[in-house]
UniProtKB/TrEMBL annotation:
<dbReference type="InterPro" id="IPR032640">
    <property type="entry name" value="AMPK1_CBM"/>
</dbReference>
<comment type="similarity">
    <text>Belongs to the 5'-AMP-activated protein kinase beta subunit family.</text>
</comment>
<dbReference type="InterPro" id="IPR013783">
    <property type="entry name" value="Ig-like_fold"/>
</dbReference>
<feature type="domain" description="AMP-activated protein kinase glycogen-binding">
    <location>
        <begin position="289"/>
        <end position="362"/>
    </location>
</feature>
<dbReference type="InterPro" id="IPR050827">
    <property type="entry name" value="CRP1_MDG1_kinase"/>
</dbReference>
<feature type="domain" description="AMP-activated protein kinase glycogen-binding">
    <location>
        <begin position="205"/>
        <end position="275"/>
    </location>
</feature>
<feature type="domain" description="AMP-activated protein kinase glycogen-binding">
    <location>
        <begin position="372"/>
        <end position="437"/>
    </location>
</feature>
<protein>
    <recommendedName>
        <fullName>AMP-activated protein kinase glycogen-binding domain-containing protein</fullName>
    </recommendedName>
</protein>
<dbReference type="InterPro" id="IPR014756">
    <property type="entry name" value="Ig_E-set"/>
</dbReference>
<feature type="domain" description="AMP-activated protein kinase glycogen-binding">
    <location>
        <begin position="126"/>
        <end position="189"/>
    </location>
</feature>
<dbReference type="Pfam" id="PF16561">
    <property type="entry name" value="AMPK1_CBM"/>
</dbReference>
Amino acid sequence: MGKDKLVLLIDMRSSKTEVDSLLKKAGLKGANAAAVLKGDFTALKKDGWTVGEKQGNVVEFDRSLEDLNLNPQTKPYLITTKVNDEDESPGYPADVNFGINNFAKVTVHELTSGITRFFLPGYAQNRRVLLSGDFNNWSTLKGTMTKVDSGWIADVKLKPGKHEYKFIVDGHWINDRYNNLESDHDNNSIYYRYNYTFKLSGYTDARKITLAGSFNNWDANSIVMEKNGNVWQKQLYLHDGTQAYRFFVDRKWITDPANPNKIQGADGYTNSVLNLGETVTFKLEGYTNARKVYVAGSFNNWEHGLIPLTKTKTGWALPLIIPPGNYGYKFVVDDKWITDPANPRNMMEGGIVNSYISVKPNYMFKLSGFNNAKSVHLAGSFNNFDDFGYTLAFNGKEWTVSVNLKPGKQLYKFIVDGKWMIDPGNKLYEPNQYNSGNSVLWIE
């Protein structure tokens, strides 16, 4: 096979649902899965696909990448129902602690409306330019840029964090030549959408002020503060969580005078502390005779005795800032570990059952029609298909659990009274090694 072809493989033993999903991935909206499975390939041929060789039950089709304005790959680009369980949606970079942009000439701007504008200068003679990146699944169909007098622009709504992107100019992929940040793989341009500004007032006579923290391994030279009137400041992307930091003013360390939260570091220095994330209120009713009550979980590496709850009239409570994610937790009442009696949802970690909480969940799993079930659990690619998974709670109508999921493809199953099953409310599924299938969910 050549390197300039988009290859579509259809296993004729696949279900209609699988083929429907496959045809959508290939951009064939008008094709009929039932007809294809009967050997009628008319719709594919009309769309420019060529019928190739047949190997057993698998029929191969191909089409020119240039016709589709797709990025030529080192291997032919495959569209197939046989998707590896470990595959992820392309283009979503790993989490990073922080990020600062580095442009020779700024080509990406944040508008006051909250929209991010990408600008490609020049290319006045070209007919079609697209913006493709992790924010649109590296699409070659979406992201059409608008031609202006000095180049091309596209407006995108981005979440704070690290984003990779490229431009497609009349079918040819190029990076942003004014952006000095590139990924190690594929030379994609990197843009950080900021979410935090560090500020230090005064010190107008200082020659140089830098910022260092747990997020950049306390490097005192890499983040230089910028003077703006009577305020030194620096914008950057900063990952949610607990972040310790301090300023280096003319080679002398100081904490942030505007931040009352301080902590003693292992190196003997006092550091300022930021807590970024969602506020979660932990409550434990009763136990009014207890001397001390703490909460611990995977959000603080299960360190005992660090997060005390405050006594109330009816029990104990504490608002706590936690980064988005899925966590196990327990209360520690006078040195005795207990699950949360008010929370019916659990998960297992290291063979131990803990209470389960999702912070800033972006999807709720629901299962109807099993009112008499004794237990329902959720297992998927997001928790390594753990046998215990996440416990669903019954609300009188259906079983539910909310989960914080990363963008891309997620595979999952329900476990009802010990029996594994695909989601009867979801038509999308794919085969697995056990010939029982996994339900498929795509998170934007």
